[in-house]
Each structure stands twice: as structure tokens, then as C-alpha cells.
Specification:
The chain is α+β, with helices and mostly antiparallel strands. The chain is built from 3 helices and 18 strands. An 8-stranded antiparallel sheet has the order 12-8-9-10-14-6-5-16. Strands 4-17-15 form a 3-stranded antiparallel sheet, with no helix packed on it. Strands 7-13-11 form a 3-stranded antiparallel sheet, with no helix packed on it. Helix 1 runs antiparallel to helix 2. It is a peripheral membrane protein.
């Protein structure tokens, strides 16, 4: 029997640390910091507001380590934020067809990211990225349902080794002006791997395959790469940090 006062063999002690700043955001932090520094010699009365702005920019691009549940039949959240929609809907045109997700309606789980959330997005399953489709569009509030069809967006389809395909969509919001992809079609990814980010408030939709039930509720907060959005019955999970 394992001792109750000792950790299992092979484990280490976990410690909190400041999250890294993603490389995509470092230039913006440097620009904001430089402006704050120069203001000391020109308009010193705005230096402190600019310092706070620099801290805010750094916080927006923070990229914390996440412990991703591993196991067959799990779909993890690709984004931090609030679960705002869980409903069965028609697929977007870009995700229809035999080479994508088919034609049947699917349950869509929407995660809304405010400007205070981590904006690095992660893949919900391990596998091969089959499609990355970028669509230009409007910049209305990403919390609106019609934003799925009218806003700037980027669709992904990931296929696992068993042939299961999961589609998800990055949707730009009212303030967001750019979707950045870190991966391309043909890349192999592990569950919870960073695949892109959306700047300054947005939404990510995940389309659940048949046989998967949502594990989240409306109003719940999700954590990218950690929260299990859906699972197939009879599955278990262990965690891997990334």
C-alpha cells in the first residue's frame, strides 16, 4: 500500500510561477514599454497610465503552462473563457462535406474570451490537422450568434489516429483585429498544443462528434487545454503539462 504522507514515485513538487509572454506579443509589450519610458521626458504625467497599459498588454499575451487531460474519447477546451452556447446547429459551409465533418447538424459549444482571458488557443484533440480555412469578415461582438457566419474567422479540422474528426473555429470579435495561426494543414498535434491566438476579445466554437456528450454547462468558465468539454462514455484521463 502506498504511503499517505509521500507522493507517488516519479512525481515532483509543483510550484507557481509567472506565466511566460507568448513571442507573438513580446513586440507589443516592448513598444508599450518604450512609449512609457519616453513619456518620462515629454509628458511625465501620463507615464503611470502608460506603465499600467504595458502591464495590461503583457497580461493579455500571457501564455501559462497547462496540464492537459490525456486519454481516448476526450475533447478539451481550445480556449479560456465563458461557456455561452451549447446547442445543435447546422455546420458552417466551410466545415461541410465528406472531406470535413459531413452534413449532419452537430452540437456546438461556444467559449467567449474577454480581454482579460488568456488568448492562446489550443487543439481539443491529438491528431493531424486536415484543414485550416481562413475567412475574412466583420468585427461585430463575438458573443452574437450571427458572428459565427459574419465575422472574421478561421476553421480547423483535426483527425485523430482512429479517424475521428473534430472541427473548431476561431472567431474575431468587436475589438479583435487579427487571428494568428501557429499550425497549418498536415501538421501533427498533441491534445492541448498551442495552435493560434486571437487578439483582444473573441470566441472559439467547437463542434462535437456524435457519441460525445458535453461535460460543461452554460455560464461555466473553461480553461484552454485543461477543461474537458466533452467525452465519450467510459473514458478516463491523466494530465500532461505543456
Amino acid at each position: 500500500m502506498a504511503s499517505l504522507d509521500k507522493p507517488p514515485v516519479g512525481t515532483t513538487t509543483a510550484r507557481w510561477r509567472f506565466p511566460d509572454i507568448h513571442p507573438e506579443g513580446r513586440k507589443y509589450v516592448l513598444i508599450a514599454g518604450a512609449i512609457a519610458f519616453l513619456s518620462l521626458f515629454v509628458w511625465d504625467f501620463i507615464t503611470w497610465p502608460l506603465v499600467f497599459l504595458t502591464v495590461g498588454v503583457a497580461a493579455f499575451f500571457r501564455d501559462p503552462v497547462r496540464v492537459t487531460p490525456q486519454g481516448e474519447g476526450l475533447i478539451v477546451s481550445p480556449a479560456d473563457g465563458l461557456i455561452t452556447m451549447i446547442e445543435r446547429v447546422p455546420l458552417p459551409p466551410e466545415l461541410r462535406g465528406p472531406q470535413a465533418l459531413g452534413e449532419a447538424r452537430m452540437v456546438r459549444v461556444s467559449v467567449f474570451m474577454s480581454v482579460f482571458d488568456v488568448h492562446v488557443n489550443r487543439t481539443p484533440i491529438a491528431g493531424t490537422i486536415r484543414h485550416v480555412i481562413y475567412i475574412s469578415g466583420k468585427f461585430m461582438n463575438a458573443d452574437f450568434d450571427k458572428a459565427s457566419d459574419e465575422n472574421e474567422r478561421q476553421h480547423f479540422v483535426v483527425e485523430d489516429r482512429a479517424g475521428l474528426r473534430v472541427g473548431f473555429t476561431q472567431i474575431a470579435g468587436l475589438i479583435a483585429r487579427r487571428i494568428v495561426a501557429f499550425t497549418k494543414a498536415g501538421d501533427m498535434v498533441v491534445a492541448g498544443q498551442r495552435i493560434g491566438l486571437i487578439r483582444f476579445g473573441s470566441r472559439v466554437d467547437v463542434f462535437l462528434p456524435e457519441g460525445y456528450a458535453a461535460e460543461v454547462a452554460l455560464g461555466q468558465r473553461a480553461i484552454a487545454g485543461e477543461t474537458i468539454l466533452a467525452r465519450r462514455s467510459g473514458t478516463q484521463a491523466v494530465g500532461v503539462a505543456q
